Amino acid sequence: MDHTSRAFDDELLGLTSRIQEMGDLARHLFENAITALRTGDVSLGQRAVHQDLSIDQMQIEIEDLAILIIARRQPVASDLRHVIACMRMASDLERVGDLAKSIAARVTSENNALSQMAISSSLKRLAAAVQKQLSRVLIAFDRLDAEAAEAVRLGDVKIDELYNALFRELLTYMMEDARSIGQCTNLLFCAKNLERIGDHATNLAENIQYALTGRQPLAARPKGDTVTGLP
Amino acid sequence: MDHTSRAFDDELLGLTSRIQEMGDLARHLFENAITALRTGDVSLGQRAVHQDLSIDQMQIEIEDLAILIIARRQPVASDLRHVIACMRMASDLERVGDLAKSIAARVTSENNALSQMAISSSLKRLAAAVQKQLSRVLIAFDRLDAEAAEAVRLGDVKIDELYNALFRELLTYMMEDARSIGQCTNLLFCAKNLERIGDHATNLAENIQYALTGRQPLAARPKGDTVTGLP
């Protein structure tokens, strides 16, 4: 970024660091939600639910800041793309926070039994894979690294596979033991939310690429969010 | 809207009519998805899935148009709010399209049996209530009517109640007959998507109010998207 106006540079850097801050918050909320789900820690779950408020607030502030920059500086080319990408990323990070909050809100003391369930290893594997995607895309943004973003984009297929396997596994448990249906349904929604967080990691990656190269995110990207051929 | 520049007026009107057009498309996709689900019409479901592509494309165009207006006209006060509200509404309508697409993609010929299932009346009731919210919020936008938008905002509680009742009903079916678990799980996700479309109708209503009155949407609005105390 090479501008005559020093103030403009500062504004762009400020916007970028707000996104980084928001990304850290979203990742932290996500980690708390997952830990709460794994351990059945209801009070940690409640704290995670509460953390989502600051993420929502931050999205509004970032949107305001981006609009102010557009109106005042009338950026063009890569600067304009950077500002637009930041707005879109704030929207994706808000959704990540929202979905992680939904997972956290589902934590009940019942989940204490989760560690005893055979399903827990598949769920943990999915959660770990999503967490990795989220971490990697935030690092790609820190470094403005289009190749790292591409690796995240390609990594979503793995998430979809893990989700589909977990989905089938949960159905099997429900069929074997009707008493598990309540809890398994709860976990089904958690799994779906994890898969969606993975989609937003992909969106974030595509917006990093848009900022750097101008390539618009593909509208028709397959999202793998539908399980067909149910058992 | 009272401006010295006629061209500016035209641009704002153009943006508004693009949102109306996008709203009509989203409503149409939604109606196709619901009809396909009710009748088990797989090919209508596939058409609805395809319709979502134009909605995604339209969101990108609306975003571009809004940014162009902000950069070129530097609108302030209610004009700026109107442009921002349009951008946010495009994002909500894109989500509505996406969720309706997910419902449409779940339609299988199995759903032919849906009309024979006792659950169908509850599901139809939820779908009809969400459809009403969506229609009403689009009319509120056509008329720029803050009171009508408020009625939609308040109407979301009803949706949440219908969803929670349907959720419990589906669990009961699964517990009674393990063979229904596959199909009921599918319907659970459809129900969840309907409930989320209801949330987006509320977001749309709040953004109409924001455009007209400057009141920011409440970040902490209860979303009722978590069922506690599972049977």
UniProtKB/TrEMBL annotation, chains A, B:
Keywords of this entry: Cytoplasm, Phosphate transport, Transport
Gene3D superfamilies (alphabetical): Phosphate transport system protein phou homolog 2, domain 2
Name the UniProt record assigns to this protein: Phosphate-specific transport system accessory protein PhoU
InterPro entries the record matches: PhoU, PhoU-like_sf, PhoU_dom
Pfam families registered for this protein in UniProt: PhoU
Upper classification of the organism: Bacteria, Pseudomonadati, Pseudomonadota, Alphaproteobacteria, Hyphomicrobiales
UniProt superkingdom: Bacteria
Family, similarity comment: Belongs to the PhoU family.
SUPFAM superfamilies: PhoU-like
Sequence ranges assigned to domain PhoU in this UniProt record: 19-107, 123-208
PANTHER family in UniProt: PHOSPHATE-SPECIFIC TRANSPORT SYSTEM ACCESSORY PROTEIN PHOU (PTHR42930)
Subunit structure: Homodimer.
Known role: Plays a role in the regulation of phosphate uptake.
Organism the protein comes from: Flaviflagellibacter deserti
Location(s), subcellular: Cytoplasm
